[in-house]
């Protein structure tokens, strides 16, 4: 078995409350979540060996998280489960269109970060990259990987409720992006971090960093844009009936990594040789993974079989 992809970041429980079309509150559900944890589950469901470095407790929510991660084949790094920690939560409220807004009760302090021999990729992002003391640990870890034969991917997944200042947040994103080979943003990230700038302009800004080779920007029902220094692809999204958008961006991210892994573009290659056809195909694969998730409740990323059943081989 090949060495696992390493995912670093928060695992928490999403407490999801819907607003029914009538305007009344709907049913409340507690489901495992956290952007990096969702990416780890998505990768494992797509057949990619995955290890998650995170931190949660042994309370009821922590037990729920642990069962979910182990049940989906995600390895947990040593120290990720700690009885001294209280498991974090995110309260997600869905509007009548199924779009989520979040309020967080979270602390973040990862166990020791290290790279296993042969690890093809390290992924991080979301709250873990901005909330101290863990954010500094992630920054130092990514700096230590500069000369290592591993591909680094980043999804800032901006949360204005946690980092309300877009100027300082963008500065932090730029610093982490410069340590990453691939950066994924959503259109909502772009609107918050760089208001008035086009997605193409934001991608080109990030690509000025020597290490950054590719930027992918998701646009909800508008599909996604993939940009490298000499390639740009625009991939439409399929028409679907949306249940909710919880976890859709994370499913996109995991499918993007899985698609690049299947093409042998991770590890020491660091996306070298990524051509227009490869970029289009991996972005299309990721768009369709996100679409499947949007047809289901909560952060429920697809398996390989789900892809085949819905979209064909």
UniProtKB/TrEMBL annotation:
Pfam families: PfkB (PF00294). Keywords: ATP-binding, Kinase, Nucleotide-binding, Transferase. Its EC number is 2.7.1.4. This is Fructokinase. Belongs to the carbohydrate kinase PfkB family. CDD domains: bac_FRK. It comes from Kribbella solani. GO terms for molecular function: ATP binding; fructokinase activity. It comes from the Bacteria.
């Amino acid at each position: 078995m090949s060495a696992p992809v390493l995912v670093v970041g928060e695992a928490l429980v999403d407490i999801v409350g819907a607003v029914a079309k009538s305007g009344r509150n709907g049913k409340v559900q507690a489901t495992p979540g956290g952007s990096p944890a969702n990416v780890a589950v998505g990768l494992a469901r797509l057949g990619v060996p995955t290890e998650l470095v995170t931190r949660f407790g042994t309370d009821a929510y922590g037990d729920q998280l642990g069962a979910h991660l182990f049940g989906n084949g995600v390895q947990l790094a040593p120290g990720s489960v700690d009885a001294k920690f209280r498991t974090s939560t995110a309260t997600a409220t869905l509007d009548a269109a199924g779009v989520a807004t979040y309020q967080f009760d979270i602390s973040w302090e990862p166990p020791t970060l290290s790279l296993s021999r042969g690890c093809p990729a390290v992924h991080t992002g979301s709250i873990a990259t901005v909330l101290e003391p863990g954010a500094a640990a992630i920054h130092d870890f990514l700096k230590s990987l500069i000369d290592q034969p591993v591909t680094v991917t980043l999804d800032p997944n901006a949360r204005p409720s946690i980092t309300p200042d877009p100027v300082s947040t963008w500065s932090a994103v730029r610093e982490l992006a410069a340590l990453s080979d691939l950066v994924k943003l959503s259109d909502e990230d772009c609107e918050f971090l760089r208001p008035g700038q086009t997605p193409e302009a934001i991608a080109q800004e990030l690509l000025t960093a020597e290490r950054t080779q590719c930027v992918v920007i998701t646009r909800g029902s508008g599909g996604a844009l993939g940009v490298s220094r000499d390639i740009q692809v625009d991939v439409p999204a399929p028409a679907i009936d949306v249940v909710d958008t919880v976890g859709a961006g994370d499913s996109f991210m995991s499918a993007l990594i899985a698609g690049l892994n299947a093409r042998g573009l991770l590890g020491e290659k660091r996306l070298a040789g990524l051509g227009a056809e490869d970029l289009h195909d991996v972005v299309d694969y990721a768009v369709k993974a996100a679409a499947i998730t949007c047809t289901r409740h909560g952060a429920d990323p697809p398996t390989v079989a789900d892809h085949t059943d819905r979209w064909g081989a």
